[in-house]
Design a protein that fits this description.
About 75% of the residues lie in helices and about 5% in strands. By secondary structure, the protein is mainly alpha-helical. The protein has one domain. It has a two-stranded antiparallel ribbon. A hairpin with a 4-residue loop joins β1 (about 105-110) and β2 (about 115).
Length: about 150
């Protein structure tokens, strides 16, 4: 590698001392064939640069498509999960309401009497726990559905 570099330096020094045939031509007069080769090499370099740029653009498009697909998948998952949470909470509230309504009722039939009674402490605990659970689940779901972007 060093000998190639030394050769180029030596050749440049020789050509700088010689009179130039064409202005700006460091290596002297070149033939038409050599000029065509230089032009072809320049065209090849331009084409190579264009191909590399297209590859970069194509790779960027692939990454964007993958990111969009992932966001769509996460969105669909969030919708399904939120629907399931919604119906879980609705059923939880319905059951709690039924228990609350039945807590002070007595049903009389022909030969038997059915009474369902809960103490005040149990009713307060049931309503408090249900309220906090519902609010907590919705808060967690909302935080997951609408995350803060960094």
């Amino acid at each position: 590698m060093s000998s190639d570099f030394d050769f180029v330096i030596k050749r440049l020094q020789e050509k700088l001392n010689e009179p130039r045939v064409r202005q700006g031509d460091l290596f002297g007069d070149i033939s038409n064939e050599e000029a065509e080769l230089f032009d072809a090499n320049d065209e090849y370099d331009e084409a190579y640069d264009i191909i590399n740029e297209e590859r970069k653009n194509s790779h960027q498009l692939e990454q964007d498509n993958q990111r969009l697909q992932q966001e769509a998948d996460v969105h669909n998952l969030r919708i399904k999960t939120f629907n399931k949470l919604f119906w879980l909470i609705v059923s939880w509230l319905v059951v709690s309401t039924i228990v609350l309504l039945l807590s002070g009722t007595t049903i009389y039939a022909e030969s038997w009497k059915v009474s369902f009674g809960l103490s005040d402490k149990v009713i307060i605990t049931l309503l408090g726990a249900t309220t906090f659970n519902v609010l907590g689940i919705f808060a967690i779901a909302a935080k997951w559905l609408f995350p803060k972007n960094n």
